[in-house]
């Protein structure tokens, strides 16, 4: 029988994360569909994740594949970008923090085209401002002097 081991591993990880969320939300009041309690959404998303994980797992059967090698460089740069964003946001504002995070995360891939990074950083910063500032109305400074 042919099995894609990478898909099996991916499906099991998604199922485990969904189960973790559903179990954690079971301590909260669920409420009803009309009056949702604090546990309703995380529990529902946990169940949905478990279902999607099962679909990923089932799609692994009938084709061959192997577990891909782990990309340590990408993981370190992406986690570093998230940490840098969290550290810079209260000190410099949304725009510089988003730009810095994109630049650091882009350095994590050898396939990154350096001339495209400034455009990507500008697009992410503008998108973050539109989503968080304009649509959601979250009050955060766009630019702040760190001095």
From TrEMBL:
Pfam families (alphabetical): TctB (PF07331)
InterPro entries reported for this sequence: DUF1468
Key words of the record: Membrane, Transmembrane, Transmembrane helix
Residue ranges occupied by any DUF1468 domain in the UniProt entry: 9-141
Residue intervals passing through the bilayer: 40-58, 70-88, 119-142
Membrane is among the record's keywords: yes
Protein name in UniProt: Tripartite tricarboxylate transporter TctB family protein
Species this chain originates from: Rhabdonatronobacter sediminivivens
């Amino acid at each position: 029988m042919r099995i894609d081991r990478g898909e099996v591993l991916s499906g099991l990880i998604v199922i485990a994360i969904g189960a973790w969320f559903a179990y954690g939300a079971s301590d909260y009041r669920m409420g009803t569909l009309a009056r949702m309690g604090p546990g309703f959404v995380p529990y529902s998303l946990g169940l949905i994740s478990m279902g999607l994980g099962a679909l990923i797992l089932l799609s692994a059967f009938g084709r061959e594949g192997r577990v891909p090698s782990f990309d340590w460089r990408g993981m370190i740069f992406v986690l570093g970008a998230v940490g840098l964003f969290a550290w810079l946001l209260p000190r410099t504002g949304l725009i510089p923090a988003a730009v810095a995070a994109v630049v650091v995360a882009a350095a994590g891939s050898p396939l990154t085209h350096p001339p495209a990074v400034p455009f990507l950083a500008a697009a992410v910063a503008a998108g973050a401002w539109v989503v968080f500032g304009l649509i959601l109305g979250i009050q955060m400074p766009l630019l702040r002097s760190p001095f």
